[in-house]
Amino acid sequence: MANTEAALKDAMSSIDGALGVALVDYGSGMALGTLGGSPSFDLTVAAAGNTDVVRAKLRTMEMLGIQDSIEDILITLGSQYHLIRLLTGRGGNGLFLYLALDAQRANLAMARHQLKRIEKELEV
Predict the structure, then answer these.
(1) pLDDT, tens digit (0-9, with 9 covering 90-100), for 26-74
(2) How far apart are CA 108 and CA 58, in angstroms?
């Protein structure tokens, strides 16, 4: 089992095109850990903003009566992919992994596969 720091390092090193990764509590909007990013790409701001995305989708599912869980949410930009993966393992309730990728260098299918593996190994 990997702790937060090890999981974030694993994501940055094993996922081609990774620009930044964060573990986020969507109840509070706080990033519990971040790695990567840049002066022009603040992961704590991205974490807080993507909390709103997760909350909105959960609210919509509830209003529609959808009795299912979110595996991941993908946002595609012109030059980036943003992947949000809700944690389902023990201790992961209310948390998500957020991964920003360079669309030119990333393989989206492999990134999703790696993030799923990292989630399974993460111990919160």
Answers:
(1) 999 999 999 999 889 999 999 999 999 999 999 999 999 999 999 999 9
(2) 23
The domains of the chain are located at 4-121
Q: Quote the tokens at residue 81.
A: 């992919």
Superfamily of domain covering 4-121? Dynein light chain 2a, cytoplasmic (3.30.450.30)
What is the rounded distance in angstroms from the CA atom of residue 73 to the CA atom of residue 88?
14
Structure tokens given for 54: 């997760």
Helix and strand counts by DSSP (H, E) for the chain: 3, 5
124: Cβ contacts below 8 Å, ≥ 6 apart: 4, 23, 32, 87, 89, 91, 92, 95
